[in-house]
Design brief:
Length: 243
Amino acid sequence: MRIFGDYHTHTIYSHGKGTIEDNVKVAISKGLREIVISDHGPGHFLFGVKSSNLPIMRKEIDRLQKKYKDINIMLGVEANIISLDGDIDVSNEDLKLLDKLLVGFHYGAFGKTILDNHALFIRPRIGKLLKGLKNSNIINVTRAVVNSIERYKIDILTHPGDKTPVCISPIANAAKKYGTFLEINAGHGHLTVDDAKIALNEGANFIINSDAHKPSDVGNVDRAINIAIEAGIPIDRIVNVEE
């Protein structure tokens, strides 16, 4: 089992270590046919891509596509969920620039409202110390993720369950219904084997990505492939793999 495309890679436009072209060159050297540049959404206060840079990135990718004809180079964003209603931190205008929309839950983003900030970003952190908050936190984050899948045309839900626990069944159901791929992330190890098994039984489909933050890690997905194998996910349920 090997991937033919890596759809989750970061660059210097957020907190990656290489340029777009650096990532592309490594992808080509590893035999990949597709790559997505997917820096963090602008709402991430530490690592977010500037909205003003997205048109620049779009032009750069279009230029590189003419230079490197043997690989499909796409622009994406790893948007942040910022409300219980599933809002993300990428505007409708910016979405028009993208080839792929990735969405994930991250600390480092701010909630759309005070209530959202408390429910999604403050309570889960407190909940790591106070176990009595765990179940309500899982409900809140799961609700936000499902709402986001229902509201946006999300191509990939990144590393579900990584930053804070979620209930994977309703997320997998929503992903199946709306055509969103659940990511098995080589960097974070999520989906976990247990959650991948649940999502598989719920009928969801998957994608394996590196989440590379330096060019040399583009295409490095052995950890994620091992999770998929242990979970018993067949190749035809993973969109970017082949024998």
